[in-house]
Specification:
It is a single chain. The relative contact order is 0.14. This protein is mainly α. The protein has seven helices and no strands. The termini are far apart. Helix 2 (50-76) runs parallel beside helix 4, helix 4 (117-128) runs antiparallel to helix 5 and helix 5 (131-159) packs parallel to helix 7.
Length: 203
């Protein structure tokens, strides 16, 4: 009986090892979702229009003032919702800025290294504000600027013939939509701000 039990145990161990080896061999040939490589960037094809170049510049300059604004929100705001919106600005525009600089080089289309004088003025205003006054000013400035560029994004995305600009417009659209959402979540967006954006829409 002891010998029989020993034989059965040996066979069971052998079968278990064999099944494990077979499963490893099969799984080695299955595709892994984690190992899926990132999609390659699109080729630079298609003519670049004056509107495309203007859009590239606007994306770059938006990041040059909105990233500082996002950092100020972390120290000057009284609301956690404003601080959260500021983090979205920092993260979103960091990625867009890198993409804009890469596209600028690929397209041989120079972009500025400074925000506009008006945008720099907005940052100066935010530096001087604190607490609830900062919160409202932050939302007023950022929601208006995002709403206005949102209009341009649609025009560029619908008409550009260049694959890099089309990609940038798509990414910018997603980022700006996210930023408008978090700004609206603060509950501080006013009708006056929305009216200001509406006034810029071509009739």
């Amino acid at each position: 009986m002891v010998a029989l039990v020993a034989v059965v145990a040996t066979v069971s161990v052998w079968l278990s090892q064999r099944n494990s080896s077979a499963e490893e061999a099969v799984s080695g040939h299955l595709p892994s979702a984690e190992a899926d490589p990132a999609a390659p960037p699109p080729a630079n094809t298609g003519a670049v229009t004056a509107l495309d170049k203007t859009f590239l510049t606007k994306v770059r300059q938006a990041g040059l003032w909105e990233m500082p604004a996002g950092r100020l929100a972390q120290t000057h705001a009284s609301s956690e919702a404003i601080k959260r919106a500021g983090m979205h600005l920092l993260e979103g525009h960091s990625k867009l800025d890198q993409l804009a600089r890469e596209d600028s080089e690929a397209l041989n289309a120079p972009i500025p290294d400074e925000a506009t004088a008006e945008q720099q003025g907005w940052v100066d205003q935010l530096k001087k504000a604190r607490g609830r006054a900062f919160d409202q000013l932050f939302v007023d400035l950022l929601r208006a600027s995002h709403g206005k560029i949102f209009i341009t994004i649609g025009e560029v995305r619908a008409s550009t013939k260049n694959t890099l600009i089309r990609r940038l417009a798509t990414q910018t659209n997603n980022t700006v939509q996210d930023h408008m959402d978090v700004l609206e979540d603060t509950g501080l967006v006013t009708d006056a701000t929305l009216d200001d954006v509406a006034s810029t829409i071509p009739k």
